């Protein structure tokens, strides 16, 4: 059947109603983690040990100060683990006014807080309360008093050198990143210490770059002793970490194939531009004709040279991004046409190195400034170390998310390769993904960008030669999402939308060397372009191949629909992806999204509609506290003609994506914007908000809002990607008068520090993709045209689209 272009919902004409967000759904009111009678004996024992360690650590900290270094202020920091979630709106000011503790960072989804001791006199109230509770628990002294707020404390400790210094002599490298602490209530103190630190670095000739706005400092070629001195004397450092990064590449086959033997036929055409953040792109390959001859974007040598290893790395990534799946699976035979042109942004010359994250971000902004049309990037260089389970966002991830939001860009980031997987397995075992060291690498936890994992597909025909259960399954080396809300939240309060990767795409697989040994086997890998003209092609596997293949899909979308926003491209790719061919055993079902995201991408479903399957795109904005209602009208033939069945005559798949300005220092509200959607009965906004027992607006019992923000006191973290799928019966269409209501709501979290909420926007853009397809025995060929006729929609860019092109 012929391809058709997607439809754009004309938002202001299709919008029926704008109401208010009201929460009459979600979690039970009796879930209050704080209403637990404390065991004073156990608490007293824990507090006694914590207080003893705190006092000892204070003595060590004071003794380590170098009095010859001129620093105007000394600040101590207290790290507190709570019994449950620390409610900022309710308790932030109480802890500041009562205990003199200023909250500066919240992690573990607000179950752990770092406080600066801003008022030492008031802090004695905290210490006295701790001592009082110790006496109550160990001496059974019921007359002693203490402030009740300490009952919510699980443990506390002083922030010490061992907490701050997270590098060693072995991994210090030539670039280290210092995360500085923001003191919103004490800006004079923060500035004074930072000024003194900059003066110290200048006097001691330690090269550095600082960004006070984003609270990061990079030091170049600093020694371990210098880092220790800085951490011990300048009380504004939260962490010192290594920036060791590497290209996402598990190994090298060195299986050359032949000379290139092709040229790109459409190099003179105007094509979308993709930025390749990697090891450079070789101009000794056919990619030279579609690569901008711009050598200005580099951190390590000429970006138009790729001499990483024998075969390069950026070159093969660039080829996959520009030439896509079809050309690679077709072994570059026949006429080769490109889907994109390329801009080389060289981050490292070899396979590994210490990356200046600040300079990476500067390159991105400069590239965007020089080439405003540049909106798609590929990044396959990640940190070498995996993230711990539920670890908070890094500064690097924050900066990439901020860049994507501010510039309407989309970076396709590989989730990272687990190089240990081959040696730790003798077969394909899904249980292996339960190990923490299979977690993703920074910055693959980015929320505004797109994280891509690898499926085992090697882009070859015939029998599948890999070790996975099928080519659609995630490759054993592909890393997993690191968020495990089950470790923190009850089943009712988890956000099912919060996972990585977003999607998976072919990256090749390992093969069986013998029945009990897996290895790099060329018949299971992908044939990719080498930077070495003498080799032509080589065999590779990795998530660094999957990411550019997915970016290629974005380039195809931009060719046909050039005006779509980046979050719409993301929503289209996710909406087109599917998990239906990835069947996990029941015991492994909880791993499905953490390993495969929303599934394997499907180019044709992503790019095109057809006469029996219509994709409608809604790009709009919404205010905090607003609930918008858009009617979706269905054609009469669905209820008036015989379709061969009456149940499940339609399938609806919908995806919401939006970008946001991320917030530092608060893991729970890193994304502070709650946005949710669903499709309801033909009811008004107020009716949809009614308690279900009074009026049920759900089309199906399992179809509720895509995420909930009802629990304001102890909320789960929000996701900016949500997807729903459900089937439609004829009876539902008939009872609702052939009209369903698409509802979208938004609300800014109340769990934000006062210093952050003051200038935070209250209106948010969003992209919503809605696919409606017939699932009857014999398709009618009527759905697309009739949906178009009865809704306020328009065909997107129909004149310029090449509907017969390869996908």
Automatic annotation (TrEMBL):
Keywords: Hydrolase, Protease, Serine protease
Organism: Flavivirga eckloniae
Domain Peptidase S8/S53 stretches: 273-599
Name of this chain's protein: Peptidase S8/S53 domain-containing protein
Coiled coil: none
UniProt GO MF annotations: serine-type endopeptidase activity
Active site, UniProt feature: 278 (charge relay system), 313 (charge relay system), 544 (charge relay system)
Assigned protein family: Belongs to the peptidase S8 family.
InterPro entries linked: Peptidase_S8/S53_dom (IPR000209), Peptidase_S8/S53_dom_sf (IPR036852), Peptidase_S8_subtilisin-rel (IPR015500), Y4bN_pept_dom (IPR034074)
GO BP, sorted A to Z: proteolysis
């Amino acid at each position: 059947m012929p391809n058709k272009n997607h439809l754009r919902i004309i938002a202001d004409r299709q919008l029926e109603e704008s109401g208010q967000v009201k929460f009459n759904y979600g979690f039970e009111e009796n879930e209050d983690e704080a209403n637990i009678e404390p065991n004073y004996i156990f608490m007293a024992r824990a507090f006694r040990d914590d207080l003893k360690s705190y006092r000892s650590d204070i003595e060590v900290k004071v003794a380590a100060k170098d009095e010859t270094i001129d620093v105007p202020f000394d600040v101590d920091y207290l790290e507190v683990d709570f019994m449950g979630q620390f409610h900022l709106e309710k308790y932030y000011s109480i802890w500041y006014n009562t205990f003199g503790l200023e909250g500066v960072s919240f992690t573990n989804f607000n179950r752990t807080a770092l406080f600066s001791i801003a008022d030492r006199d008031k802090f004695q109230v905290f210490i006295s309360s701790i001592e009082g509770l110790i006496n109550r628990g160990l001496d059974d002294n019921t007359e002693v008093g203490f402030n009740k707020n300490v009952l919510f404390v699980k443990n506390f400790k002083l922030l010490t050198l061992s907490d701050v210094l997270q590098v060693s002599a072995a991994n210090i490298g030539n670039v280290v990143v210092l995360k500085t602490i923001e003191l919103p209530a004490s800006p004079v103190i923060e500035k004074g210490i930072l000024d003194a630190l900059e003066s110290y670095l200048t006097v001691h000739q330690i090269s550095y770059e600082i960004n006070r706005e984003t609270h990061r400092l990079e030091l170049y070629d600093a020694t371990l002793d210098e880092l220790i001195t800085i951490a011990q004397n300048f009380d504004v450092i939260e962490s010192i970490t290594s920036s060791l990064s590497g290209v996402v590449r598990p190994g090298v086959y060195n299986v050359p194939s032949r000379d290139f033997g092709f040229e790109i036929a459409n190099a003179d055409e105007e094509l979308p531009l993709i930025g390749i953040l990697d090891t450079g792109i070789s101009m000794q390959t056919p990619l030279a004709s579609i690569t901008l001859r711009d050598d200005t974007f580099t951190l390590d040598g000429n970006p138009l040279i790729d001499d990483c290893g024998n075969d390069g790395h950026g070159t093969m990534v660039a080829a996959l991004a520009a030439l896509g799946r079809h050309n690679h699976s077709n072994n570059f035979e026949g006429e080769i046409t490109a889907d994109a042109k390329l801009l080389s942004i060289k981050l490292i010359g070899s396979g590994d190195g210490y990356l200046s994250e600040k300079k990476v971000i500067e390159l991105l902004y400069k590239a965007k400034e020089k080439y405003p049309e540049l909106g798609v990037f590929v990044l396959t260089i990640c940190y070498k170390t995996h993230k711990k389970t539920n670890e908070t966002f890094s500064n690097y991830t924050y900066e990439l998310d901020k860049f994507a939001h501010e510039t309407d860009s989309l970076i396709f980031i590989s989730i990272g390769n687990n190089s240990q997987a081959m040696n730790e397995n003798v077969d394909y075992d899904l249980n292996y993904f339960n190990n923490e060291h299979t977690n993703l690498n920074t910055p693959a936890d980015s929320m505004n960008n797109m994280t891509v994992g690898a499926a085992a597909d090697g882009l070859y025909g015939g029998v599948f030669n890999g070790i996975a259960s099928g080519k659609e399954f995630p490759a054993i080396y592909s890393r997993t999402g690191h968020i495990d809300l089950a470790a923190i939240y009850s089943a009712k309060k988890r956000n099912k939308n919060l996972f990585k990767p977003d999607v998976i795409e072919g990256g090749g697989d390992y093969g069986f060397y013998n029945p009990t040994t897996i290895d790099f086997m060329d018949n299971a890998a992908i044939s990719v372009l080498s930077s070495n003209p003498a080799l032509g092609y080589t065999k590779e596997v990795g998530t660094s191949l999957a990411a550019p293949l997915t970016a290629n899909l974005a380039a195809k979308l931009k060719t046909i629909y050039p005006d779509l926003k980046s979050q719409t491209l993301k929503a289209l790719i996710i909406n087109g992806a599917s998990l239906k061919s990835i069947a996990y055993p029941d015991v492994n079902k909880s791993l499905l999204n953490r390993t495969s995201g929303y599934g394997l991408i499907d180019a044709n479903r992503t790019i095109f509609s057809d006469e029996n399957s219509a994709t409608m795109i809604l790009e709009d904005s919404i205010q905090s506290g607003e609930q918008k209602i858009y009617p979706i009208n269905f054609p009469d033939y669905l209820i008036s003609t015989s379709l061969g069945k009456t149940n499940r005559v339609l399938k609806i798949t919908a995806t919401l994506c939006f970008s946001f300005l991320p917030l530092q220092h608060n893991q729970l509200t890193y994304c502070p914007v709650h946005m949710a959607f669903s499709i309801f009965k033909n009811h008004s906004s107020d009716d949809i908000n009614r308690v279900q027992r009074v009026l049920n607006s759900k089309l199906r019992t399992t179809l509720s809002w895509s995420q909930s923000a009802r629990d304001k006191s102890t909320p789960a973290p929000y996701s900016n990607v949500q997807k729903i799928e459900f089937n439609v019966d004829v009876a539902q269409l008939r009872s609702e008068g052939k009209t369903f209501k698409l509802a979208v709501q938004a609300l800014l979290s109340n769990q934000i520090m006062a210093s952050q909420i003051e200038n935070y926007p209250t209106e948010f853009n969003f992209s919503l993709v809605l696919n409606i397809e017939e699932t009857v025995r014999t398709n009618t060929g009527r759905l697309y045209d009739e949906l178009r006729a009865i809704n306020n929609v328009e065909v997107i860019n129909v004149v310029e689209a090449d509907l017969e092109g390869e996908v």
